[in-house]
# Entry
Amino acid sequence: MTSTTSAAGARATVYGYPRQGPDRELKKAVEGYWRGSVGAEALRDTAAQLRRANWQQLADTGIHEVPTGDFSYYDHVLDTSVMVGAIPPRHRGAVEADTLEGYFAMARGTQDAAPLEMTKWFDTNYHYLVPELGPDTAFTADSAKQVTELKEALALGHTARPVLVGPVTYLLLAKPAPDVLGDFEPLTLLDRLLGVYAEVLADLRAAGAQWVQLDEPALVQDQPRAVLNAAARAYRELGSLTDRPQLLVASYFDRMGDALPVLAKAPIDGLALDFTGRAAANLGDLAAVGGLPGKRLVAGVVDGRNVWINDLGKSTATLATLLGFADRVDVAASCSLLHVPLDAAAERDVDTQVARWLAFARQKTAEVVTLARGLTEGADSIAAQLAANRADLQSRATSVLTHDPAVRARCAAVTEADAQRSLPYTERAAAQRSRLGLPLLPTTTIGSFPQTTELRTARADLRSGRIDTEGYEKRIEAEIREVISFQEKTGIDVLVHGEPERNDMVQYFAEQLIGYLATRHGWVQSYGTRYVRPPILAGDISRPDPMTVRWTRYAQSLTGRPVKGMLTGPVTMLAWSFVRDDQPLADTARQVALALRDEVNDLEAAGASVIQVDEPALRETLPLRKAGHEAYLAWATQAFRLTTGGVRPDTQIHTHMCYAEFGDILQAIDDLDADVISLEAARSHMQVADELATAGYPREVGPGVYDIHSPRVPSTEEATALLRKGLDAIPAERLWVNPDCGLKTRGWPEVRMSLEHLVAAAREVRAGLPGE
# Structure
């Protein structure tokens, strides 16, 4: 292929930026609006200020083209549903009466209307609101948000590019509405939807957009020919429009594979591709299709999902190769920077050597700008940055933090027998029933209880020195007493201590494990106003001391009912952290599993008869392409079994998963060999119970009957109906009754009522069972 490419004027850009603000101003404003202490206009003003600050930060760093439309009050997929008029009938009245109230009603539900289902955005820990569509869905264009934000950026003097979820990905993310009967594929609505996209594109062009980005990450998955044909049709039609901006189609998280030649041939103006990690294969694939002559290529060479500094020398070489593949090559992060914290410079407590290894959103934009400059002016223009980068990479590679010989020797000594229970499930189950003496349809919760203002204040007081450790522990004990007392009075069968001492289900453990790094300001959006601080797996992992035993033992001393020991599993400890990129994930998982195994064994020795090891991220971390599934599931399930394999047969091992497409990993769920699994089921209407029954899952199951991600309180009748639906799939001797997930984010009033209804539902259904 003959290149006519020039690197002159390579632009630096990103696809999205953290929304929350440096002090989570958006979270506070939205939650204030929900409480009634912040008005709608004040909320809009806060949002506008955050957008302006983001754009200015990007421009000041040297980003030439800022994104618009990526900002959201709750979720960008929900924003897309509003943009195309896909409002569920039960929410239309609320949306028509008050756009903002209706928007949040779709996200959170009301007492009378359930919210949209929520699940994970590809293999990230970001949750999106699942569109509900049916054969009668009538799309209508509403580009007000997209146009308004574009005009804001343009008025401030920025070169701006609106970013939209692409039509094919939007439909592939959707599900049939609950009232849709028979088989229905949302992708059949593509032609209807394209007309709406055409209107939105025309509106954006009229508002001043030169380019519009359409994100199609679903095309990095294994898609059948029908989907590839739909993508070809979609971009043939959109590309052929006369009243449109230039179109940049973006895909990320993995290689595009068979979708790349489809888009390369489409009458669009550019492609934005990921060239990091497993998506590095896009480089060879792009060469194989003959490049993108006459088109723009935006090269995602800075990892937008992890926090390690970029290898600038390697990225410079990649960009030099790409110069021959397109009419112009610009530089970007691999995906939206929504998935990383805002600013590593805010982490003042991090060791100065380790700090040199970290790059959050602001640092990543600087890396993008540096690489664009090097592409434009030549490598000599960034020689100082390249030299400093090489030194930082070498510092990390040779650090004693990253290599602990004792940890590595222990991992090397692991055998398959270490990951096996001593008896098969059927024999264990009999021993556990004898030991625990539980009724049919036993009730429990997932682990956490509300994290009150008083608890957060206690942690802040401890950090600041206003109280000492003894004073803090007395506050935690008081909360545990209240949680145990409430559960006993309510009639819950297997209790939890409520986890009042835990700031987060991953960070709490990370702060006590050697090799992990916890941040103070590294907030990342998980869903809505729920932000987490993913810890950083910086080195080899070991556990110096017990982490949970003291609190579980104290809780058990307050009651004669079993209290679950509560741990976060090894896969979730990886998935909800920023992982090492210098060794295979399987190796890191084994290290974490062995540290957790020590904790499990100590809990059992302290008297715990039930131990829950949560793995909500097992499905989330599944590679996007099937070629990687077998290897991933092999090491992931082995890590769980390594964590739990050393306990007695009559110790009951629970696990928990939530908000994922479980049908893809049913065999892996079986391979975990847990005695009891609890799963999200309320928003998905017990779908998982049917899937497990169809697969012949042989163990005990707790499909959730209380959706904790909504403030609405389910009635006893509603919980009873869901429980009966669960009984249609799972026999009573193997069915548990529990919420969908932990109760940390909910308030005590709604939790009390909801759990009382849950227990009442279990009693009602139990009373009607044969022999009861």
About this structure: DSSP finds 28 helices and 21 strands in the chain.
